[in-house]
């Protein structure tokens, strides 16, 4: 879609307001002609012809016109502003809604700074275009036309001479805008660099302090800060170079006017009042020419921003509902991976993953770092689509299920815990806003949140900082677990959920989980054997492949990789593995 056509869509609902505002602009431009006209009248009728009684009338008119003009000015500016604010409100909403629809791949490949720029700087360029540029182009054109009409009515040759001079101003103004363009782009770029340095420094403040890199960070900031200063200075150098030229040219036009106009007055071709009038209209000829360059820049900036926004709005997520997807299916919890292979980019991350789980069964997944455990979870929730093979839930290919139907019935505690800056209760109930306090407390008890909540004087109303600052890693994990449990879904995915809690608490949590989740199909990813040893099926993953599978006892008997891990973790325990592992 073309930017102008696109922006038209957002202005269209307000076309009448816009139309009315434009009419007001025409009226105001017309009223702008009154003052020079009346000045001429003062010279001719009052001063030359001595009609003193006209003076008061003219003054009343001047005051009246100024008041009306100011009111209309205020009115149309407000109208333009409201149209632009309404339009960018919609654009922001659409962008944000689109953002919510995007999949993991989008966020993997798009920088946060770019997304933020779309929502801030670029939408502001659109606002400026509607409220500033369109208005300015229209009002300048109107002024230009009205002034020309008035000037032609006074003297045609003089007007033609003046008109012939205006392109010179236009040319210099255009050159100024072109010279200024790279500089202004540099300022914007430099500003966003400065922003990202600050942003990263604030989120990484703990690492900065831990490695005592404060002075390094200040240096980094100073570099960008200085870059911003240089760019701004460069802009004013360009500006200061051209502005006197533009002003002198405008002055030159007045000189030419006085020279030629004066001769015409002496020769009685026009009156002195006409010359005064003419001089008054000259700025209405100058001004549009002076703005031309800036308006071109602003239009270009609008086009660039609009194109970026359009491309973000048009970007389709890879993962989306099929047109005939199954909506509202009540999941039982049978899960089957059929020869599933997967890669994020080029490297295969999972190869030929093949297993079946019955509803209500517990699956443990164990394996080294980077073996592909989290990737399996990502596939179950369809955050990514498997490259080869099929994943079936209750015998249905998950690609045929509506995404919401699928994800609403999966409770997830992710490896990388994210908490919102909200109360602990708010965080637990994030996925289940209708849950009662009893239910929240139940989930909190099961996940072991209750055990530490007394440490906070405000209990569940304690507000946790951004990303959960103020809580220990284990506390954060337990809140994330409670959040997943509270949803009470037929499928639960727990990715390394108890890795940061001590063995004893972990044991208690797993006991509690066992007693509550009889019907839920549960995936538990863990590095510790103690977390998964009771599972109905344990998958041992290595480099994206299942190398062993079975129950704890079976795997111990196989004396393979699992057994080796077991020995490492419980080296002093009887190798038959029959002993209770805590
Ligand atoms: C398996 C790669 C990663 C690793 C392999 C999440 C993610 C992973 N990878 C990507 O290229 N992009 C991604 O977004 O995939 O990664 P995993 O499944 O996260 O491994 P894991 O969960 O078994 O590891 P760990 O450390 O959590 O125990 O090569 O680079
Ligand atoms: Mg992982």
Layout of helices and strands:
Elements: H1 3-11, H2 15-31, H3 34-48, H4 53-101, H5 104-109, H6 112-154, H7 156-203, H8 205-210, H9 214-266, H10 272-314, E1 335-343, E2 348-357, E3 362-367, H11 373-380, E4 388-393, E5 396-397, H12 403-408, E6 410-413, H13 424-428, H14 437-446, H15 450-453, H16 473-486, E7 491-495, H17 503-516, E8 521-525, H18 529-532, E9 537-542, E10 545-550, H19 552-558, H20 561-569
Helix pairs in contact: 1-10, 2-4, 2-6, 3-4, 3-10, 4-6, 6-7, 6-10, 7-9, 7-10, 9-10, 14-16
Bound molecules: 5-Methyluridine triphosphate and magnesium ion.
5-Methyluridine triphosphate binds next to helix 11.
Overview of this structure, please?
- There is one protein chain.
- With 582 residues, this protein is an alpha/beta fold.
- Among the domains are: 3-314, ABC transporter type 1, transmembrane domain (ABC transporter transmembrane region fold, Up-down Bundle), CATH 1.20.1560; 415-488, P-loop containing nucleotide triphosphate hydrolases (Rossmann fold, 3-Layer(aba) Sandwich), CATH 3.40.50.
- Helix content is 64%, strand content 10%.
- It has 20 helices and ten strands.
- A six-stranded mixed beta sheet has the order 6-7-8-3-9-10, sandwiched between helices. The chain has a four-stranded antiparallel beta sheet with strand order 2-1-4-5, with helices on one face.
- The longest helix has 53 residues, at 214-266.
- It is elongated.
- It binds 5-Methyluridine triphosphate and magnesium ion.
- Magnesium ion is lined by residues 373-374, 415, 495.
């Amino acid at each position: 879609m073309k930017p102008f056509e696109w922006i038209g869509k957002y202005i269209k609902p307000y076309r009448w307001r816009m139309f009315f505002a434009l009419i007001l602009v025409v009226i105001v431009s017309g009223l702008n002609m009154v003052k020079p006209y009346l000045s001429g009248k003062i010279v001719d009728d009052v001063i030359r012809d001595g009609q003193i009684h006209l003076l008061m009338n003219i003054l009343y008119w001047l005051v009246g016109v100024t008041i009306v003009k100011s009111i209309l000015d205020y009115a149309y500016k407000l109208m333009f502003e409201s149209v632009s604010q309404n339009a960018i409100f919609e654009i922001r909403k659409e962008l944000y809604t689109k953002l919510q629809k995007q999949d993991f791949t989008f966020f993997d490949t798009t920088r946060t700074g770019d997304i933020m720029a779309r929502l801030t700087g670029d939408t502001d360029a659109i606002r400026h275009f509607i409220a500033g540029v369109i208005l300015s182009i229209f009002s300048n054109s109107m002024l230009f036309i009205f002034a020309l009409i008035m000037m032609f009515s006074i003297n045609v040759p003089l007007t033609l001479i003046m008109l012939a001079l205006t392109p010179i101003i236009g040319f210099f103004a255009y050159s100024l805008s072109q010279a200024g363009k790279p500089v202004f782009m540099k300022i914007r770029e430099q500003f966003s660099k400065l922003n990202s340095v600050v942003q990263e420094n604030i989120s990484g403040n703990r690492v900065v302090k831990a490695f005592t890199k404060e002075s390094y960070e200040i240096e980094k900031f100073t570099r960008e800060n200085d870059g911003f200063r240089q760019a701004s200075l460069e802009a004013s150098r360009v500006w200061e170079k051209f502005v006197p030229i533009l002003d002198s040219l405008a002055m030159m036009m007045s000189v030419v006017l006085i020279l030629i106009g004066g001769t015409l007055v002496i020769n009685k071709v026009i009156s002195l009042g006409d010359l005064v009038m003419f001089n008054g209209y000259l700025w209405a000829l100058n001004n549009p020419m002076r703005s031309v360059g800036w308006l071109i820049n602003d239009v270009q900036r609008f086009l660039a921003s609009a194109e970026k926004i359009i491309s973000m709005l048009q970007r389709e997520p890879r993962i989306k509902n099929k047109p005939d997807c199954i909506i509202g299916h009540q999941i039982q919890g049978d899960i089957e991976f059929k020869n599933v292979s997967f890669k994020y980019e080029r490297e295969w991350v999972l190869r030929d993953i093949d297993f079946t789980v019955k509803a209500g069964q517990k699956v443990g997944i164990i394996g080294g770092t980077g073996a592909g455990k989290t990737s399996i979870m990502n596939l179950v929730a369809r955050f990514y689509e498997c490259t080869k093979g099929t994943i079936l839930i209750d015998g249905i290919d998950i690609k045929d299920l509506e995404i919401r139907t699928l994800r609403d019935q999966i409770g997830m505690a992710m490896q990388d815990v994210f908490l919102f800056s909200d109360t602990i209760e708010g965080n637990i109930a994030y996925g289940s806003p209708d849950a009662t306090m009893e239910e929240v407390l139940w989930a909190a008890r099961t996940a072991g949140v209750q055990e530490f909540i007394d440490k906070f004087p405000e209990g569940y109303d304690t507000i946790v900082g951004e990303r959960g600052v103020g809580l220990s890693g284990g506390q954060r994990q337990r809140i994330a677990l409670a959040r997943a449990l509270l949803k009470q879904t037929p499928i639960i995915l727990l990715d390394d959920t108890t890795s940061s809690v001590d063995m004893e608490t972990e044991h208690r949590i797993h006991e509690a989980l066992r007693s509550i989740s009889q019907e839920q199909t549960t995936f538990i990813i863990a590095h510790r054997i103690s977390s998964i040893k009771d599972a109905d099926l344990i998958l041992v993953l290595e480099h994206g492949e299942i190398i062993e599978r079975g129950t704890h006892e079976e795997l111990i008997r196989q004396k393979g990789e699992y057994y080796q891990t077991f020995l490492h973790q419980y080296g002093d325990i009887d190798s038959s593995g029959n002993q209770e592992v805590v």
